[in-house]
Amino acid sequence: MSEPSTTKPAARPRTSNKVTLPVVALRQLVIFPGANVPIAAGRPQTLRAVEAALRNPQHLVFAVLQREDTAEIALGNLHAIGTVARIEQVQRGLGGTQMLVTGERRGIALRIQERADGYLEAVVGPAEELEPQDPNDLAFEALHRQVRLRAAELGEKTGLPKEVAEQVVHSIDEPARLADVIAGYLEIDAEQRQQLLETLSVEERLRRVLTQIERQIAVMDAQADIKSQIQEELGGRQREMFLREQLKAIQRELGDGDEGDEVSELREKIEALGLPAPVRKEVDRELGRLERMGREAMETQVIRTFLERIIELPWNTRSDDLLDLVTAARVLDEDHYGLGDTKDRILELLAVRRLHDRQRGEREAAAAAAKVEEQAASQSDAAPESSVEPTDAVEEPVLPAWLAEEAERRKSPILLFAGPPGVGKTSLAKSIARAMGREYVRVALGGVRDEADIRGHRRTYVASMPGRIIQGMRQAGTKNPVFLLDEVDKLGASFHGDPAAALLEVLDPAQNHSFTDHYLGVPFDLSEVLFVATANFLPNIPEPLRDRMEVVHFPGYTEQEKLAIARQYLVPRQIIQSGLEPAEVSISDDALRVVIDSYTREAGVRQLERELGRLLRKVARRLAEQLDSGDESPPPVEIAALQVGEMLGRPRVHPERRAPEDQVGLATGLYYTPAGGDIMFVEASAMKGKGKLTLTGQLGDVMQESAHAAWAYARAHAEGLHIDPARFETTDVHVHVPAGAIPKDGPSAGVAMATALVSALSGRRARHDVAMTGEITLSGRVLPIGGVKEKVLGAVRAGIAEIVLPKENERDLEDLPEDVRQQLLVHFTTELGEVLAVTLRDASYEDGRLLFAGDDPSTIKPLHQSWN
C-alpha cells in the first residue's frame, strides 16, 4: 500500500462511507472535482480497471497521479490522495481507448491492492475539505473576490472574450468549487496540481490558486513586452531595408553607381595610407567581411566605422620640424618670461633633431653616390688593372643593426612639467608646438577614472570608441604633434581600472612605437609624438609612471618676475580684452606691485591676471561713461599705486609678514605647498605643570614627531641649552602652529619647533628677522629638505632676508634668480647648535657650546658631547 503524500498535512479522513474502486493511474495528469477531462488509456492494467468500472452501475474509478512518470504501474509509485471520477463516455479503437471522465470528489486511498484480474483496486475514503471558520470574514471575502477578478483577467489574456470569462467565473458561487475549476485551467506541472488537490483547506487552496494566477499573468505580460519589442525592432529594420532598396533603385536609375562603390572607395583610401603589414592584414580582413555582408547586417555599420577611423588616423603624415634654433628661441621668449631651463631643454631637442637630419642626409647622399658608381661600373667594359698603388683608407665605423635601427627611429622625449598652478605649464606646451612648427593637441586627464578612456573600448561593446590618445592623434592629423596630457596627477583609479597604469605604455619611448588601442586592435606608432604632461603635485603620480618621464620643475615666480610678466604679457592682453587702446590707459610699476602684494597670493600669475582684468574693466566703464556724456576724446587714464585701492576695494589677501619684534617662544619657519612657499610661525609657551607637551594646530604625524624629537633633544641637552633641568618636571609646554583649521605636515619644520621650544624653556628671545627650515634628529643633526627655492621665495615675499638652511641644500640656491640671491644672507647648518646660534638673539656657537653674551665657555656644557 502506498504511503499518503506529505505535501500538505491533510485532515484526518473519516473511515465511514468507504468504497472499493478500480484504480486508474494517471501520468502527468490530475483530475479536479467538477472537471470533465478526456483520458487516453492504453496500458493493460488501466484497461482492465476501466472494464471493471464499467461493470459497476455507477462507473466510478479512483484516478490518482503517479509519483514518477513510468510505464509500469506500481503500488509505491502512487500518491495517496486522488479523485473519485465517473466514466461518462468510452470509445474504443485500434489506437487504444478514449474516455471522458468527470471528477466527483476528493478521496484518500486507505488501502491499495492488486487483484488477480490484473488491475489495482483501492479502498477509498472521503477526504473532507476544511471550510473557513467564518465564511463572512472580510479577509476571506477579499481573497475570494480577488481570485474571481484575477481569474477573469487571466481568461481574457488567454484569448477568451471578456464577457465569457466573467460569466464562467461568476457562475460559480462556492469558493471550493471555484478554486478547483480554475486549477484545472492553470498552466502548471502535475506536481503543482497534485499539491492543489491535496490542499484540503479551502482558504489555503484559494490563496495558492491566486499565487499561480498572478505568476501566469506576470509571465504573459513579460512575453507581451518582449514580443512588442521584437516586432518594433523587426519593423524598424524592415523599414530601413525597404528604404535602402528604394535608394539603391533610385541610384541605379540616376546612374550614380552600385552598392560596391562604397567598399571600393574605402579600399582606395586604405591603399593610399601605406599601412604597416600587421595593420594592413587586419584591415583587409575587415574589408573582406564588409564585402561579404549585406548592407542590412547588424555588423556592417560597426565594420564601416572601424575602417573610417583607420583612414582618419595619420599613419604616415608628418609635420616638417622648424629646426631654426634662433627662430624657436625667439618664439619661446615672445610667449613666456623666464623659464630658462625649460626653454633650453626644448632648444636641445631641436638641436639633436637637426643633427640627426644632417646625419640622415649624409647617409642618403652616400648611398646615392654608391649606387651611381655601381651603375657606372656595371655599364663599362672590363678595364685593365690600375697601376696606382692603393692608399691606406680610413674605414668608417659600421653600426650594429640594433643601433642603426635605434638611430633611424625618431624618438621624442617625454616631458613632465611640474609646478604650482598658474606658472605657465600648459601655455608653454602650446608655445613649444608653435616654435617647432607642429600640431598641438591637449587632453585633460583631471578626474579620469576609467582605463578605457586611455586605451579605448573593445569593438564588441555597443557605442565603443577609441581612447583619448588615438582620438587626439586623429584630431592632430599628423604623426608627430605636441601632445599635452594635462593634470596627469589628477588621475584616479576605480573598479574600471587604473588610467595611470594604461599610460605606462603610452609614455615609454621603448614601447610606444607599437601602442595598441583596444578599439583598433592594431599597433599605432607614437614614438614621434612629443608628449608633454603637466602636474601640480609629483607625489600623486605613481612611481613607475613618473620614472618614464623627464621632470622639468616650474618654480613659483618672484615679485620682480611677476612684475615683468604683468608688464610684458598680462597688461597688454587685458587691455585688448577690455576693449581699450594702449594709448588710453597706463599702469605704473608701483600700482602693479600693490596688486601683486595685496590682491594676490599665489606662485603663478593666474589670479594676478584676473585682478588686472578687474582693474582695466573699471577703466573701460569710466571711458564708456565719458563717451556717453559727449566727450569724444577723454584723456588717458593713469593708474598709480594710490588709485588701486579705490578701484579694486579693500585688499583681499593678507599674506604673512615677518613678526614685528623678537619674542620668547616664537620662531619663523618655512613651508611648501603646491601653490608656492610661505612662512609660518611656531609658538611655544611654558607654564607650570608636570612636564607635559601639548601640540595643536592640525599637525600631521610627521610634524608631531619633529616636535617630540625637539622636546627630547632639549631634555637631553638641557644644561648646554641654558635650561634648568628641573623645569622639565615642573613645566608644561604648549606648542601651537597658527591657522589651526589648515592641516599641516612634513619634516621641514623640525628646526623651527626646536627653536621655539628652546626659546620658551630658556627664556631667550628668538629672532623675528630670521626664517629657518630643516629636519632634525634626536642627536641634533640637521637633515636636508625639498622645495628650497619656493620656501626661500616665500620668505622674501614676507620681508625676511636672513635664512637658515641645511648644509646639504647649499646647491639648491643656484635655482634662485640672481637678484634674489644678492639680497639674501643664508646660514648653512649641520647641527642644531649652529641653528640656535643664528635664530636666538645674542647667541653664538663655539667648540660645540651654545654661548650667550657674558657666558664663560668653561662653565657651559657642550651640546655634542653625547656623540663621542
Mind explaining what this structure looks like?
With 868 residues, this protein is an alpha/beta fold. The longest helix is centred in the N-terminal third of the chain and has 53 residues, at 202-254.
Average of the residue pLDDT scores: 83
Number of continuous helical runs: 27
Instruction: Give the N-terminus to C-terminus distance in angstroms.
Output: 104 Å
| Helix/strand/pairing category | alpha/beta
Number of strand elements: 28
Topology of helices and strands:
Elements: E1 19-26, E2 36-41, H1 44-55, E3 60-65, E4 81-93, E5 96-114, E6 120-126, H2 138-157, H3 162-170, H4 175-185, H5 190-198, H6 202-254, H7 260-271, H8 277-292, H9 300-312, H10 325-335, H11 340-379, H12 401-408, E7 414-418, H13 425-436, E8 440-444, H14 452-455, H15 468-476, E9 482-486, H16 499-506, E10 515-516, E11 523-524, E12 530-535, H17 543-547, E13 550-553, H18 559-577, E14 585-587, H19 589-598, H20 606-628, E15 637-639, H21 641-648, E16 663-664, E17 666-673, E18 676-688, E19 693-696, H22 701-716, H23 727-730, E20 731-736, H24 750-762, E21 765-766, E22 770-772, E23 775-776, E24 782-783, H25 788-797, E25 802-806, H26 818-822, E26 825-829, H27 832-839, E27 843-846, E28 849-852
Helix pairs in contact: 2-3, 2-4, 2-6, 4-6, 7-8, 8-9, 10-11, 10-13, 18-19, 18-20, 19-21, 22-24
